[in-house]
Amino acid sequence: MTDDVTLMRAVHDMWEALDPVPVDLADRVLFTLALEDVEFELMRLQESLAPVGARGPETAATMTFAAESLTVMVTVSDAGPRQRRIDGWIAPGAALRVELRTARGVQETVADADGRFAFAALPTGLMQIMIHPTAGAAVPLHRSVATPPVQL
Fold this sequence. Notes:
This protein is 16% helix and 47% strand. With 152 residues, the protein is an alpha+beta fold. The protein is elongated and about 70 Å long.
């Protein structure tokens, strides 16, 4: 074996030990690439409050995402073993179609006139919320907006 090969193996082994590839990297990439053909505006995370105990062992985390046309705040809370619940609010409030993407599929609902929506009993893992233009809604969207993928 040449000195170069030995050196390259040592460098590989060092990085493998110090900064291993995340075990779910391929799943995260495929999850994100699934939106490749959809035209949408990517929201940015404005604020994320760390999980805190509410009553007893329950925890909840709040995240706020912003786009040019609207803001979405979501609270993620425990809904059982390895399950989460999402309560969300769109501002300004409007009855818009909300899509929640997880590795297990897509769920849809329509926010009420005040912008409130919810999804119950979701599996842990990556999720992404998309808000779609909806005919007759008080907030006219020109294209869909989506949160970046986040871990439930």
